[in-house]
Design goal:
Bound molecules: inosinic acid, magnesium ion
Oligomer: single chain
C-alpha cells in the first residue's frame, strides 16, 4: 500500500460528484488514473466557471503538470476517445501529450454499440456498448487497443499524431513508483458487477477491485475516499430503497438538477441511505468520506435519512427487499456555514465509523471544504 496514493470511489449508484472531488485533489498528484468503465459515465466538473463533462478521461483539468491515464481495465470506443481528446485540447492545447492509454484496454466496436442500443430497456443501460465489450473480453473474443495499434488503425494514429501515448503499467512502473497517483473510479459500489444490485449494475469493478484489475496492485492507495451526496440518486432500473416518488421526487430532482450527464435521463431521487453507505464502506475499504451537494438541501426544514433496514445488508441481494427505517434531522439554511450542517455530518461519520474529510456545497473548487 502506498501512503502517497489515494482513490475516489462512489458509494451509491454513480453521480455522487466524484468528478469535482477528483479535480479538486488532482493538483496534488502526478498521475490521475481512471480505473474502470467507459463512455457510460458522465463526469461533470468546472474549470474557472466553464462546465466540463468527461466520459473517458479522468476528471482533472490540465492546468497542472500532471498526467491522465486510461487504464487497461477500461473498455474504450476509439471514436469517443478522439472526440474527447480533441475537445480537451481546444481548452488545454498541450493536454494530449499528457494523456496515456494502456494498450491492454479492450475496444468497444460498432457491433457492441448496436447490440447494446437494441437492449437498453433491460437494465436501463446507457447504450454505449459497455456490457457487450466486457462480455467479449471475458469470453476471450475481445479486441484490444494493442490490436488496433498493430493494424495502424486510423483513429489510433490520429490520437498518436495529437500526442497521446499508448503505454502499459509495466512500461511506466518506475515512474509510478517515483510519483503519486490519484485513482478515479467510475460508477459506484452499488453498480459494481460483483457487489452491486445485480443484474441492475454496470459490467466493471467500481470498487478498489478495479485498481487491482488495472495492473496497479503494487500501487494500492492507503487513502480511499468514499463519495456520497447528501441525498441519493439512481439512473436506470433496479432497487433503490430510499426512493421518492411524485411531487416530492420532482422537487428534489429539480433542486439538484438531477438529469443524466451521458443520456440526459431524469435521475430517480431519494434520501441518504446510511446502511447502504456502510455496506459500500466495508466492500470498498473507505478510509474517509466526502459528502457532496449539501447546498441542494439548503432551506429544507428537516432532512430525512435512512438509518437502518429491518435487516442489515450483508449481500447485494439484500437491497431488493430492504425496508428502510427513516429518521429526520434538522435542516440548514446555508450549508456553507459549517455550524449549521454539523449535526448532519456528525450523524454520518458516527454511523459509518470513519471521518468525513471534505464537504462540498456548490460546483466550484472553493465550495469544497476540508472538514
Ligand atoms: P451500462 O454501464 O451502460 O451497461 O449501464 C448499466 C447500468 O448502470 C444502468 O442502470 C446505467 O444507468 C448505470 N450507469 C452506468 N454508468 C453510469 C454512470 O456513470 N452514472 C450513473 N449510472 C450509470
Ligand atoms: Mg455521472
Amino acid at each position: 500500500m502506498s501512503d502517497r496514493n489515494a482513490a475516489i470511489v462512489g458509494a451509491f449508484f454513480g453521480d455522487e460528484s466524484k468528478a469535482r472531488v477528483t479535480n479538486y485533489l488532482a493538483k496534488n498528484y502526478k498521475y490521475i488514473v481512471r480505473f474502470n468503465g467507459s463512455s457510460n459515465s458522465g463526469h461533470t466538473f468546472y474549470y474557472r466557471g466553464t462546465k466540463i463533462v468527461r466520459h473517458l478521461l479522468p476528471s482533472a483539468d490540465f492546468s497542472h503538470n500532471n498526467h491522465a491515464v486510461l487504464s487497461s481495465n477500461m473498455v474504450i470506443n476509439p471514436e469517443d476517445l478522439l472526440k474527447e481528446v480533441r475537445e480537451t485540447c481546444d481548452m488545454f492545447p498541450e493536454a494530449a501529450k499528457r494523456i496515456i492509454v494502456d494498450p491492454n484496454a479492450f475496444v468497444i466496436t460498432q457491433k457492441h454499440l448496436e447490440e447494446d442500443r437494441a437492449n437498453v430497456a433491460r437494465i436501463g443501460s446507457t447504450g454505449k456498448g459497455v456490457g457487450c465489450a466486457y462480455r467479449d473480453k471475458i469470453n476471450r473474443c475481445g479486441v484490444r487497443i494493442n490490436d488496433l495499434l498493430k493494424d495502424n488503425n486510423e483513429i489510433i494514429c490520429e490520437l498518436q499524431n495529437l500526442g497521446v501515448r499508448f503505454e502499459s503499467v509495466l512500461s511506466l512502473f518506475d515512474e509510478f513508483e517515483m510519483h503519486n497517483i490519484l485513482f478515479e473510479g467510475a460508477q459506484s459500489v452499488l453498480l459494481d458487477i460483483n457487489f452491486g444490485t445485480y443484474p441492475f449494475v454496470t459490467s466493471s469493478e467500481c470498487t478498489l477491485g478495479g485498481i487491482f484489475n488495472s495492473g496497479f496492485a503494487a500501487f494500492m492507495p492507503s487513502t480511499v475516499y468514499g463519495v456520497t451526496k447528501a441525498y441519493s440518486t439512481r439512473v436506470g432500473n433496479g432497487p433503490f430503497p430510499t426512493e421518492l416518488f411524485g411531487n416530492e421526487a420532482e422537487n428534489l430532482r429539480k433542486l439538484g438538477n438531477e438529469y443524466g450527464a451521458t443520456t440526459g435521463r431524469p435521475r430517480r431521487v431519494g434520501w441518504l441511505d446510511l446502511p447502504a453507505l456502510e455496506y459500500a464502506k466495508k466492500i470498498s475499504g473507505f478510509t474517509h468520506l466526502v459528502v457532496a451537494k449539501l447546498d441542494i438541501l439548503d432551506g429544507l426544514e428537516r432532512i430525512p435519512v435512512c438509518t437502518h433496514y429491518q435487516k442489515d445488508p450483508h449481500s447485494p441481494c439484500d437491497f431488493f427487499d430492504a425496508k428502510p427505517q427513516m429518521i429526520s434531522v434538522p435542516g440548514w439554511k446555508n450549508s456553507k456555514d459549517t455550524s449549521q450542517i454539523k449535526p448532519f455530518i456528525k450523524l454520518i461519520s458516527k454511523t459509518i465509523g470513519i471521518p468525513v474529510r471534505y464537504v462540498s456545497c456548490g460546483v466550484k473548487d472553493e465550495d469544497i471544504m476540508l472538514w
